[in-house]
């Protein structure tokens, strides 16, 4: 999936989530949303990820009606401390939409290191951990060797399509 930034992200999320909501309310699926955040974007966490730490920190945040899959995931993943705040615009946008639309959603938050020397390794470790948790809980298969790494482009390389709207 292409990487979008606000406000294009908000428009895309609104369209996709509206397609999910339309129809029989009893058949609305549970959304399982993996999300990576840097440790610098996590506030109120008693434990932050250091560059030399071996494992990725993974939290589960449930929104809306609890479903069977959410209960299964909650048993395998730690709940975040009540003081945890994630300051990431894309995450906040997505969370807002699912709350307003009352969609049962489970966010799997992988916290990665903010240190450049191990950033890619920590992101890959967080992806692997989230993939294994989802695979063991849903009956899906996760193959670490099929994860394709596309590093984020620098701001000079990015063309922001939303700027065309505002001149």
Question: How would you describe the overall organization of this protein?
Answer:
By secondary structure, the protein is α+β, with helices and mostly antiparallel strands. The chain has one domain. The chain contains 5 helices and 5 strands, in the order αβββαβαβαα.
As a whole number of angstroms, the C-alpha radius of gyration is 17 Å
Number of individual domains: 1
Could you list the spans in which at least 5 consecutive residues all have pLDDT below 50?
none
Element-level helix/strand string: HEEEHEHEHH
Distance between the termini: 27 Å
| Oligomer type | single chain
Structural class: alpha+beta
**What gross morphology would you assign?**
globular
User: How many H/I helices?
Assistant: 5
Largest sheet: 3 strands, mixed
Helix content: 25-40%
Order of strands side by side in the largest beta sheet?
1-5-3
For the secondary structure, the number of strands is 5
Fraction of residues in β-strands: 15-25%
Average pLDDT, to the nearest integer?
80
